């Protein structure tokens, strides 16, 4: 099957860790820690200078990890994340120029949306999976339920305000494919290399997602 920007990334985890790495050396042990906890996806965000090097490190050393680039907001970043080895990308919002770029590159892409109009626009372009961001500020569970009635053919990855306390509530919704969150990779745990803690957090999130 030919991969296009509309291809759904192949990871199986319903929890997507949203990761800010400041040291590329943390990337590979982090990937192994997440896999050990049952999470086979990483959204490494372009929020630090270390991001591209981190993506490249995981792509080369841990091929069983589905490595996505997050916070892709500019056209030039599309080729940069592909060159680094990302197998898909996500954005907090979206522009038509960004869609043109991922379409030309055949890079699986999850565009960010916040309003019904944005959802309809991206659906017209061919996207069936979108990132609701920031999810809590956009209306959270209530917004997703409201979107599900008129737009039942669209799936979402809510990100922003998702936590262990509400993860199951999000994942129970029929239009939620997976949910993203930063709690699996706390900055202090990354700084001290506490991979055991990250494995435990990943395992707990996986258990919550599977207990539905």
UniProtKB/TrEMBL annotation:
GO molecular function annotation: (4S)-4-hydroxy-2-oxoglutarate aldolase activity; 2-dehydro-3-deoxy-phosphogluconate aldolase activity
InterPro entries in UniProt: Aldlse_KDPG_KHG (IPR000887), Aldolase_TIM (IPR013785), KDPG/KHG_AS_1 (IPR031337), KDPG/KHG_AS_2 (IPR031338)
Positions in coiled-coil regions: none
Taxonomic classification: Bacteria, Pseudomonadati, Pseudomonadota, Betaproteobacteria, Burkholderiales
Stated name of the protein: 2-dehydro-3-deoxy-phosphogluconate aldolase
EC number: 4.1.2.14
Keyword terms of this UniProt record: Carbohydrate metabolism, Lyase, Schiff base
Enzyme superclass (EC): lyase
Enzymatic reactions: 2-dehydro-3-deoxy-6-phospho-D-gluconate = D-glyceraldehyde 3-phosphate + pyruvate
Natural source organism: Hydrogenophaga palleronii
Family statement drawn from the similarity comment of this UniProt entry: Belongs to the KHG/KDPG aldolase family.
NCBIfam families tied to this protein: eda (TIGR01182), PRK05718.1 (NF004325)
Pathway annotation from the record: Carbohydrate acid metabolism; 2-dehydro-3-deoxy-D-gluconate degradation; D-glyceraldehyde 3-phosphate and pyruvate from 2-dehydro-3-deoxy-D-gluconate: step 2/2
Keyword Lyase applies: yes
Subunit structure: Homotrimer.
